[in-house]
Amino acid sequence: MTSASAPGPVPVPAPAPDEPAAEGLRVVVVGATGNVGTSVVQALADHPAVASVTGLARRVPNWQPPKTHWRSVSIEPGGQDLVPLFAGADAVVHLAWKFQPTHRPAETWETNVLGSVRVFDAVAAAGVPALVHASSVGAYSPGPRHRPVDESWPTHGWPQAAYCREKAYLERVLDAYEAVFPGIRVVRMRPAFLFKRESASEQRRIFAGRLLPGSLVRPGLIPLVPELEGLRFQALHTDDAAAAYREAVLRPVRGAFNLAAGPPLDGAALARIFAAKPVRLPTAAVRAGLSAAWRMRLVPASPDLFDAVLRLPLLDASRAHEELGWQPRRSSVEAFEEFLAGLRDGAGMPTAPLTPTGRPTPSGT
């Protein structure tokens, strides 16, 4: 979701219930204007089996893909009744997430957990047959660093990090939800780190803040890259993840799906991308510096999230390949390099979370 409401374009009205609807699926995307949301909306709108997409976000964007209607909505407790917005939908894709303020985890809990529960309850109350939820690699418990795990790996997260704690808690909520509502097809997408060119400005604001000038993130200008014990992660282009979300809407699948591209990225791989020298550094010293910067509010990403990244397992995406017919079109290196090019160019989109200029937004997905 985006940040607090602000004046924007007048929402495009959705078809009235008594108007004839176009033949095909009606899909509602909650949190439709961030990194993942924009790609999912575009992937759905481009598919001939989808008749309409209703995008929900705090602020209605200037961006207008085909077959898409917008609604300004808050999912937090006390927000609008979501049931009328979901009524008649064939699927709801839930992507809304607030990453900040990391210094006030009770505030992110209200949106991410309590808001998500409101979405789940509204799906059931509206009789929507399918719910596709954005879980994450961050929901997984610490795991091996040199072999991938499948969807059966425990999802207890890294409890110190609010992001992981919230993602893991929602996994437990959905366990109970599926037992109570067995007729609802619930899909949990668990992607690796997602990057695209247009998300660069948003992700710099969310995770790095003012200390990372985008124009300087280019090969040759960064002489050294830290090589840390445990730093080995997977990346995926957001558009490739969106293709998997689309297939989860279209196909009669349920359960969890890992999404990741190869190869895994580590200090040596990052050094090659930046044409820099990898330098072995003690993890404790790097964490201490990040912790001090976070306490002084120089960087928005918490040291607890840093701890989680060093413990996340690698993902085996075989189930998505087999049951969704899904293959990433870009490697992890290509996705990350596109993101870095976006950082250098100040790339973005005309949505509140992805805007490349102006006041930083505290949330996005």
Give short descriptive properties of this protein.
365 residues; 11 helices; globular; disordered C terminus
Q: Topology, please?
A:
Elements: E1 25-30, H1 35-45, E2 50-57, E3 68-72, H2 83-86, E4 91-94, H3 105-126, E5 130-134, E6 148-149, H4 162-180, E7 185-191, E8 193-195, H5 200-208, E9 224-227, E10 232-233, E11 235-237, H6 238-250, E12 255-259, E13 265-266, H7 267-274, E14 277-280, H8 283-295, H9 303-309, E15 314-315, H10 318-323, H11 332-345
Parallel strand pairs: 1-2, 1-4, 2-3, 4-5, 5-7, 6-15, 7-12, 8-11, 9-14
Antiparallel strand pairs: 10-13
Helix pairs in contact: 1-6, 3-4
Provide an overview of this structure.
The protein is globular and about 55 Å long. By secondary structure, the protein is an alpha/beta fold. A seven-stranded parallel sheet has the order 3-2-1-4-5-7-12, with helices on both faces. Helix 1 (35-45) crosses helix 6 (238-250) and helix 3 (105-126) runs parallel beside helix 4 (162-180). Helix content is 35%, strand content 17%. Helix 3 (105-126) links the parallel strand 4 (91-94) and strand 5.
